Amino acid sequence: MIYLDNAATAFPKAPGVARAMADCIEHAAGAAGRSFGAFGAGPARIIFETRRRLSELLGWDDPSDIALTSGATYSLNLALYGSLRPGDHVVTTSLEHNSVCRPLTHLRSQGVEVTRVPCPGGRSPDPEAFRTALRPETRLIAMVHASNVSGAILPLREVAQLAKEANVPLLLDASQTAGALPISLRDEKPHLLAFTGHKSLLGPPGTGGLLVAPSLDVAPLCRGGTGSRGFSDEQPTDRPDCFESGTPNLPGIAGLGASTQFLLDQGVANLRAQETRLIDGLLAELRAIPNVVTYGPERAEERTGLVSLNVGDLDPAEVGLRLERDYGIITRCGFHCAPWAHESLGTLHRGAVRLSVSPFTTQEEIDQAARALAEIAASCTR
Ligand SMILES: Cc1ncc(COP(=O)(O)O)c(C=O)c1O
User: Fold this and answer.
1) Each residue of 57-107: pLDDT tens digit?
2) Rounded CA gap, 300 and 308, in Å?
3) Distance (Å) from CA 336 to ligand 1 centroid
4) What is the maximum alpha-carbon separation in the chain?
5) Is 150 in the pocket of ligand 1 (CB under 6 A)?
6) Ligand 1: centre distance to CA 228 (Å)
7) Taking the CA of residue 354 as centre, how many other CA atoms within 13 Å lie in the half-sphere pointing to its CB?
8) 328-333 contact pairs (CB < 8 A, 24+)
9) Is 99's C-beta closer than 6 angstroms to any atom of ligand 1?
10) CA-CA distance, 147 to 104, in Å (whole number)?
């Protein structure tokens, strides 16, 4: 099997993830923050260490600004519902995933106004378009760091700068970039950054987090036991506890700690260079095939490790099926939970086929995928 659906979820996971999760289940007894002595210390250490590694990977100074969650969907909902009120205005992009589109569509029905910055062809938007969209009542800019459909990397530095100048918080959806692109938040400083553990962080599903700048007021999405201030029936305000109600997913957090350590050891910049080379070659091979259309930025440097495409008039579902059945190649076809992005690409009527790599993808696998697509394309012109 050749697995090219890493933008959905990475496979395989980083070495050490399964072991860390099994060790946690077998040996780390007790509930973090809720048990005493050695019993509680093991789980607390696992959580502390994972938070510390994540903050190192993201280039953020204080690990306690990172709330651990069940994934980017929860984190984005927490950031959006925790920041926006009726009458507020939010600027977002036309490349967002449904974990931003759907909350914003719902919030719109509650009186929040939404402006979408255009991203024609699925390419990165003009940073000036964010400035033009700002209003006195703008309370948030919500921007995906890289599209899960076109792969386009959006202009974080410029948008962070103009958000700072306008004194409007920036929420970055780093689901496709945390662990895939070298990120140093000490320089760029979004106020909120949502990430998921199971994609480019190479960890288990059901993990992720939200980084919340200490200066920002964000209401919790969910209230309950935090293991702290148990004498009170009011939600604590201490961070990150106030965002982490309920018993944490300790095995998942242990696995995420192991995958983050793997990325720190390998160096995200090295892995990024390797993936960029693969995508550069793949784009060249695909562009040479008559009948194949690729979407998004021209150059591999301008995108993450994915390519979306269509073959002639074939239904993307048929292309995906043939790749899997006849060649053992796993891709993702359809709409990728991103209708706004497909609208930007001009593919909302049919969807597309997406191929996405990971640090474990080889050149041979990429060549096989390109050969398979050439054969499928040839068969549909006959
Ligand atoms: C850009 C983007 N944002 C958010 C998400 C949601 O991530 P999760 O399902 O892990 O919560 C995804 C997952 O596909 C994504 O690609």
Assistant:
1) 999 999 999 999 999 999 999 999 999 999 999 999 999 999 999 999 999
2) 13
3) 10
4) 74
5) no
6) 30
7) 27
8) 328/1, 328/2, 329/1, 329/2, 329/4, 329/368, 329/369, 329/372, 330/1, 330/2, 330/3, 330/4, 330/5, 331/4, 331/5, 331/355, 331/369, 332/5, 332/7, 332/8, 332/356
9) yes
10) 17
